[in-house]
Design brief:
This protein has 386 residues and is an alpha/beta fold. Helix content is 35%, strand content 20%. The protein is built from 15 helices and 14 strands. It is globular, with a radius of gyration of 21 Å. It starts with a helix and ends in a 17-residue tail after the last helix. Bound molecules: calcium ion (CA).
Length: 386
């Protein structure tokens, strides 16, 4: 249905003729997405990231990797993925990743059980089949990405445009003995990708102690009500399902159910720690625009997209080119050092505006309010006899 609508709109545009000088529609970005998404959740920030991924039409999601394969068997991320595909009417292949951490940075993971080989194979197949270079966006460990790289290095060097790696903390090892959580999921995979000379867009989770954003950390937080109140009902139900974990109800049916008011209120009152939203906007080529004094929206830029002259671009964050070097230090932590290098294909996230948190909250609210919802997310009652 959504696809038909797109064709209809395209037809209308063609009938109306393209305005002289109008820019061509921006090309979409092919994406392989990797997430340690689970139900029951480990950290439900992954549920907000999944919705962000599917709310950005610039991102052409070609594959979803469900990271931490062994835990996927007990807490399947396939449940929220199926729900998101139902909400948005999309059809994307997804599969679970390797079950155990890599034995060394060079480990291709080939000795792990056949049950856990699907993700690495899907990454390689997607890269080989793509008509253009693919962006990899990882929000958990880098295990399957590193294993795939270890199996076909040349393919990665020729077919990977960017790897957004939402992982790590530049202060680990140097100032603190502990690794950041995603690093701890697979230290060897982290070392491998950070040292690979690939176009890594490094998005450290923190910069300093845990919960410190510093200069390079992506961390921020929001209260659910501030983002979810204006979201479509099916998406609201997606979060109520994830966070209240109702028993004995079909996850897809729940999307069009009427939740209990007390469940809704409880979910609305929760706060959520977040990381990947700004990197998503960057991957999609969006810019942040101010709308008045205290509202912001991430939009395609004025030349190609939906921003108007009434909206002012704001320099909230950027990625700056750096040379990356990861090594294990005495404490056992993986320390990543980096130095400015305009010639390096790698970059690091950098905050430019101290209003980052209210800006991200507003941008996520507007984005999720407009997530494309397919008709099938609210199925009509089944008529008798069918
Ligand atoms: Ca995650």
């Amino acid at each position: 249905m959504l696809r038909n609508l797109q064709f209809a709109l395209f037809g209308l545009l063609m009938l109306g003729g393209v305005k002289a000088g109008a820019a061509a529609p921006p090309q979409t970005v092919p994406v392989i997405y990797s997430s340690d998404l689970h139900h029951p959740h480990v950290d439900p920030d992954d549920h907000f990231d999944l919705a962000t991924l599917f709310a950005l039409p610039e991102l052409d999601v070609r594959a979803v990797i469900l990271d931490c394969g062994a835990h996927q068997l007990e807490a399947p991320g396939s449940i929220p993925v199926r729900q998101m595909l139902r909400i948005t009417g999309r059809d994307v292949p997804f599969t679970i990743g390797l079950g155990k951490p890599l034995q060394s940075p060079e480990d291709p993971g080939t000795d792990q059980s056949a049950d856990f080989q699907g993700a690495v194979e899907l990454i390689l197949k997607t890269l080989r089949a793509s008509d253009r270079a693919v962006t990899i966006f990882a929000t958990g460990s880098l295990r399957d990405v590193a294993a795939a790289f270890n199996r076909d290095e040349n393919l990665f060097r020729s077919r990977v445009a960017r790897i957004y790696a939402n992982i790590g903390n530049p202060a680990s090892g140097r100032e603190f003995p502990d690794d950041e959580y995603n690093v701890g999921l697979d230290r060897n995979a982290y070392v491998r990708i950070m040292n690979a000379g690939l176009p890594v867009y490094w998005c450290p989770c923190f910069d300093g102690a845990v919960w410190q954003r510093g200069r390079h950390g992506t961390y921020w937080k929001f209260r659910h009500a501030d983002v979810l109140e204006s979201a479509p009902k099916a998406l609201q139900n997606f979060y109520i399902f994830a966070l209240t974990k109702p028993q004995g109800v079909d996850p897809l049916d729940f999307l069009s159910a009427t939740p209990k008011p007390e469940d809704r209120a409880a979910v609305w009152n929760m706060s959520r720690a977040m990381w990947c939203t700004a990197p998503f906007f960057h991957a999609a080529g969006r810019r942040i625009y101010a709308k008045g004094d205290a509202d912001w929206q991430a939009l395609a830029d004025t030349k190609t997209g939906d921003a108007t002259n009434a909206e002012r671009p704001v320099d909230v964050f950027d990625f700056v080119p750096v040379r990356l070097q990861a090594e294990k230090v005495k404490s056992g932590a993986i320390q990543v050092t980096f130095a400015s290098d305009p010639k390096s294909p790698a970059t690091v996230f950098e905050i430019h505006d101290e209003r980052y948190e209210p800006i991200m909250t507003a941008c996520l609210k507007h984005l999720l309010a407009g997530i494309p919802v397919a008709e099938q997310a609210s199925p009509p009652p089944i008529s008798p006899g069918k």
